[in-house]
Amino acid sequence: MTKPHQEAIQQQQQQLAIGGRTLSSRFFLAPLAGYTHLAFRIVMRRQGGLGLCTTDLVQAQTLVSETRKSLELVETCPEDNPLAVQIFSGVVSQLVAGAKWLEDHGYSAIDINMGCPMAKINGCGGGARLMCDTAGATEMVGRVIDAVKLPVTVKMRLGWDRDHTTAPELAAAFENLGVAAVTVHGRTRQQGFKGSVDRAGIKATVEAVKSMPIIGNGDVLTPEDAFSMMQETGCAGVAIGRGAMLDPWIFRKLQDIELGRELFEPSRDEQIEFLSSHFHIMREQHGDFSCLMFRKFAAWYGARLGIPEDLESRLRQFESAAEFDAIVEEIRKRHGERESSVPTALVRVPNGPVERW
Ligand SMILES: Cc1cc2nc3c(=O)[nH]c(=O)nc-3n(C[C@H](O)[C@H](O)[C@H](O)COP(=O)(O)O)c2cc1C
Q1: How far apart are CA 79 and CA 84, in angstroms?
Q2: CA 16 to centroid of chain Cα atoms
Q3: Ligand 1 — pocket residues by CB below 6 A?
Q4: Is the pLDDT of residue 36 over 70?
Q5: Which residues are catalytic?
Q6: What is the 8-class DSSP label of residue 75?
Q7: CA distance linking residue 250 with residue 265, whole number of Å
């Protein structure tokens, strides 16, 4: 084992607590809107090693109005724990009302989105736009903290662009307000998802705070990346988004490394079980609509599990749970017909100039 790994593991032995909750692991699932819904979180949690999940971002006001979509996004269950619900808005009163709604409805943690680069969110003053007005963002977060007893965390980028990397300044201000933790995606809004993650920027944020945990995020695709993120930046934990889609067993592997166990590799049956559980949990929440929702995962499972092309194609078209189960049976029987590979194209990120996203 390399020295960075050992040091990161020693850090792990002191458990990480956020907002009074001691977490079983420092490795978290980063929210990926459209993917990290309840069913995905549950199957991921069942693999082991996952410390905390966050919901997809939800517009704060829509929670108060209890729109169908927002209620779906925050749907959870006892197994989906520990969980933070992520809200966004550019309007203080909306954010406060959304936070209170979450408290009144029994949720246990609130995460404020300050990293989203999408125009429709930035145009209303939310997401990464908040990082442009440090006084305004501080006032906003302070108002949320004053309004609820729940722990409040913030997820941000390094700043709006290279000339305005406000993450360290904001993190220090948030710590003074009582924010429980800050996650930093090591890119600016201007970068979108391009270029590489600036770990020095995450490190500068770690150095700007006294003891509030900073969670490093961005481009962690392997357990080695997670340990080196902790080692290079001094961050207290790591949030993994696209890397968890590439390898849903990454959290389990991180745990195995820490415990000195042999590295887990899922058997073919375990992989098929993952696929099947994912769909059936989704179905418990969404009924037969899940047949449609599942389609976007077909290509990924096709590559990951080496599912023969014709069966992958059927996974894109099935219309009932019985049909799904029949396809899974076929997948089991025809094991080995197609080589599995690392899926690359699953999580789409927006293209073109970031100004037009
Ligand atoms: C498709 C997609 C959806 C995302 N949705 C959210 C979101 O709802 N809230 C959020 O804070 N970040 C969101 N992110 C950003 C990720 O949480 C994460 O910060 C970013 O992808 C970098 O981490 P990664 O390289 O581990 O994926 C999203 C990213 C992608 C690609």
Answers
A1: 13
A2: 18
A3: 30-34, 56-57, 86, 113, 115-116, 155, 185, 217-220, 240-243, 347, 349
A4: yes
A5: 116
A6: -
A7: 10
